[in-house]
Amino acid sequence: MTKPVIVFLDRGTLAPDVALLRPSTPHEWREYDATSHSEAAGRIRDATVVIVNKVRLDHPVIEQAPGLRLVLVAATGTDNVDLEACRRRGIPVRNVVGYGATSVAEHVLALVLALRRNIVAYRQSVLAGRWEESGQFCYHDFPIAELSGSRLMLVGGGAIGSEVGRLARAFGMDVVAAGRKGAPAAEGRIRFDEGLATADVISLHCPLTPETRHLLGAREFALMERRPILVNTARGALVDGTALVEAVRAGRLSGVGLDVLAAEPIAADDPVRAILELPSVIVTPHVAWAGRAAQLRVAEVLSRELEMFLAAEIG
């Protein structure tokens, strides 16, 4: 019997010391630190199992792998995989759910705290010599606001949104969940536009779909009466980048924390480049999920799924 071929297309998305356990059954293992879309078809041509994090597996790529029997996604989001093409071929797609709720939620609160207290601005001013110039033990160049008593609007639920809400309540924040854009608010939620108008912090936690692409654009930023902090740790294309830059320049936002962008790494023509150096803007390279414990959970789930699949196939 031919050994199953397992191909990990972007091993470099996990830390070097976070390893998947290799299956106990006979197999051939191939892994690549990174794979471009143009390289994907060639690398999975004889694959039985493909492990992927962010490499795009669209219909033309999948059709080049006639022996493909399983796709394992080393993440929760599956928007990089053509699920319909896999369904037609009877190829199951398994992702990892709930592994990063704590890691992402803590990253969200870290961004909110840094922006609310102007940590970056104060750090930069100290490095520039402002403390010595002040002649005082402290100075008040940048406003500092407390989280307690402010309103956080969560856009999107699930494990991550719930954990962000739990942590925010511990800081004394008023946490509200937004209803669907353009629809009446369901029980326990507030209307989307009402949330935009009343929130001090807005945190995005919804998947990227045709309906949620550019969920926040010029119209939505114009509704933000309280100059909120916007945090996005979900998907970059939830926000219209050009409209975001205009909102920052117009003073409609008091801070922006982004862990995701429309293209990653950041594209040369990404509008967000125009505001990267502002102290009120913090951009991190899609690492909110990457706490060590979270990465180990990803590896554990993938290893278990792989072992069970091969045992069933060979058995």
Supply the CATH superfamily name of the largest domain: NAD(P)-binding Rossmann-like Domain
Order of helices and strands: EEHEHEHEHHHEHEHEHEHEEH
Tell me the Rg in angstroms: 22 Å
Query: What is the mean pLDDT?
Result: 96
Overall CATH architecture of the largest domain: 3-Layer(aba) Sandwich
How many helical elements?
11
CATH topology of the largest domain: Rossmann fold
Give the spatial strand order of the biggest sheet: 7-6-8-9-10-11
Strand content: 5-15%
Biggest beta-sheet profile: 6 strands, parallel
Shape: elongated
Helix content: 25-40%
Structural class: alpha/beta
Poorly predicted parts: none
Number of strands: 11
Number of domains: 2
What is the CATH class of the largest domain? Alpha Beta
Spatial gap, N to C terminus: 12 Å
What can you see in these coordinates?
By secondary structure, this protein is α/β, with parallel strands linked by helices. The protein has two domains: 5-97 and 293-314, NAD(P)-binding Rossmann-like Domain (Rossmann fold), CATH 3.40.50; 101-283, NAD(P)-binding Rossmann-like Domain (Rossmann fold), CATH 3.40.50. The chain has eleven helices and eleven strands. The strands form two sheets. It has a six-stranded parallel β-sheet, with helices on both faces. Helix 4 (101-116) crosses helix 7 (158-170). The mean pLDDT is 96.
